[in-house]
Structures are given as structure tokens and as C-alpha cells.
Predict the 3D structure of the following.
Amino acid sequence: MTNIRTNLVVLAAAVVFATAGATGAVAQTIRVGAASNIGGMIVFIAQGKGFFAKHGLNAKVVVRNTGPALTKSLMAGEIDFAPAAFTNLPVALEKGIKLRGIVGYLGSHFNSSVSDNNVGILVRPGSGIKTINDLRGKKVGVAFGTTGDLYFLGVLKRAGMSKNDVTRINVRPPSHVSTLDSGGVDAMVAWEPNITRALDKIKGSTLLLRGGGYVCFCAGMHGKPEFVYEDRKRTQAFVDAMAEAAHFLRDPNNIKEVAEIGARFVRGMSPALVERTLKFVVFDARIGGGTKAAFNSSVKLLIAAKKMKRPFDAAKYLDTSFIDSTIRRHPEWFSDLK
């Protein structure tokens, strides 16, 4: 019996050794940030389906509530790669933060400068709000400094209003539903899954507006230049894993498995809720000319909102070399995209 156990141990060790040899090296450890909402699904799938591991990476996923919080964690050295929305990232870049965007994370920025079907405005029952103009004089919740904030300013401007016509109240994303439900605000600017969650929970609540072509609710994944270029093979492996995960995520045949994985990573989400909200989000790992246009469009909005003073060259942020390599080597991961 002892000999049998010894042989099994030796055999197991041989299998591990052979596997390590097949992958070429010991897995490199990286820390990957993601937002605590449906937008983080590429990262969640890359981890949950083992795509990071497949590409030789030992990834730890770090979840934060907003893009600005992720950027803060990145700069503090708590994570290595993080996403940030184009509607708030340029402000940090203008202030001197050095980052390089290397792979798409959220939104249809590759093809369009606007992509906001993921965000909208919810209203409480009995608020009397039927149109955008009815928001005048009302209390509206919005997470300051987020894409939802810039989206709301755009909605008001198109309606001939400004932020001075409403009472804007800063509400963190985890509190969007509860604050609207309790009557703390008359309306709430929110994004998925909070939109669907609120409509389910708050009887009589309605969706005043979804999307509308105001902003690009888009984000890229980036890192500090010193980490991105310290080991290009490591960064390339990360981009490959993200692209393969995005392809798996977009395949409708995988919806049930995707929903199960999403529910494990996003607190308060059931598989059914993940499945119902995925249709409102675009997942595309590509970055290119359209991405630059979307970035520049957001910069113009930020300047108009007096959050930035001058334009910022998208080329100083975006590096397409890694994703271009992925596309050349794995065209099958992008065959479903236009």
C-alpha cells in the first residue's frame, strides 16, 4: 500500500511538472481591478473561466464601486491593471497621472463616439416627473464625478436646462436603489444592474430615460507605464486573456454560464439579473481610431462642463500594439464583431 501511495505522489508531481513545462513558466501574479457592476464582466469571465490562468497569469481580482475609486487604488499600488471611464479619466490625465490604455473594457467605442444604453434616469412613483423638463426643481441623485454625472449634465443641456435647475445629490452607486426607494431623491441617475434592480424593487417606479446618445459610457483597461512595459509578454498575456474572455462573453450560447459567473462576483446580483442586464452593455476588447474619437468626444464634454481646461491627446494614453497583436494571432475571437 505504501508503494502504491508513493507512486501516486510521484505521478501527481510528474503531471504538475509536465503542465508547468507545457505553459513555459511559472504563472505570473497580477492584480486586476474591476467595477462592482455588470460592466466588469470581461474581468469576471477571464477569472471565472480560467482565461487568465490559461495565458500564464495568476490573477487576483480587486473590485471597487466606481472608476475613480479604481484609479485611486491603481495609483496607490493596490492593483496593476484597472479600468476607468473616458468621461472621468481625462481629468486625472490632465493633472499628470501617467497611464497607458491597452485593451477595451466596456462600450462600443471602437465604432462610435457615443454608447450610453447602460445608463438612465429613474423616477419615484408619485414624483410627478413625466418628462425631462419635470426634473426642474426636483432632487436628483447622481454619483458625482462618474459617467452618470456627465450623462445627466448632457441630458439637462439638451433640454435647455443646467445643473442649477435641479438639486443634485451625491449618491454612491451601492445606495442608488435604497436612496430612491426611501424618498431621499425624486429621481436617480443610475446604470445597470441598478436600473433593472430598482424597477423590480420599487413598485410604481419608472424609467424616464435610457441612453439617448449623450456620452460614451465606455472604458479601457490600463496600467502604469512602468508596469505595462516592464514585461511586455506579461502585458500581452493579460490582453490576450481579456480578448478571449470578451469573445466568450458575447457568445449567446454561453449566457447561462456567464450569468452564473457574474452573480458570483457582483454582490446582490442573481444569475437571472445578470442575464437580463447583459443586453444593455457592449463588451469589445478592441481599441483603435474610434476609441480615440470617443475619448476626444468625452474630453470636449469635460471641458464644456469645466472639469478640464484643455484638450488631452488620446495618443498619449492609448497603446494599440498589444491588442493589435492579439487580433493578428487570434482573429477568431473578433469574428462576430463589425
